[in-house]
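Before our next group meeting I need something from you. Please put the record directly below this note.
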Amino acid sequence: MIIKLLFISVISFFLSSTNSTPFLGFVILIIINYKLFKIKKIYFLLSILFFTQCQNEKVSTSQNENAIVIITTKVKEGMMPDLVKFMDSENVLPVTRSFDGCKSVIQFVNEENNIHVLLEEWDTVESHQKYVNYRMNEDKTGAAEKHLTFAIGGQEGLSFLVNNTNYIYY
């Protein structure tokens, strides 16, 4: 039975890695596993493993025009919960995420070093620049200025890595 699974998995892996639709190999593997092995947990997990292995293809840098923005804040002692609550409020990250061109925003905290991180993905550098212009010149909520109140040393406590392009997902 293990040899059958291995043989089927190798064939499915080959189909997934050579086909323009890698999902096909995964579907075939699941169907065969279901019929032959009644999808025992271990076979299902192996199917998932082979599928994820097939998906680990490097994205060409020439195809990637998105802009990644990383903002780190060295947060004042005891202020992290307030900063996270502020970022979650309706005028901050939800506005960022709904801004034209924003593909994603991830907020995370490094409690050990008291660092708050925002990782944003924008469809283009220009989209992010329009957003920065909005926050600095048009936003009536004062979110950018309020963000500074959580940082050690105000502006000195923030770092911005902006408009990073040509990255590769592995």
Remarks:
- The chain has two domains: 2-54, 62-164.
- Helices lie at 2-18, 23-37, 41-54, 80-88, 93-98, 125-138, 143-148.
- Residues 67 and 165 are 5 Å apart (CA to CA).
- The first strand starts at residue 67 and ends at 74.
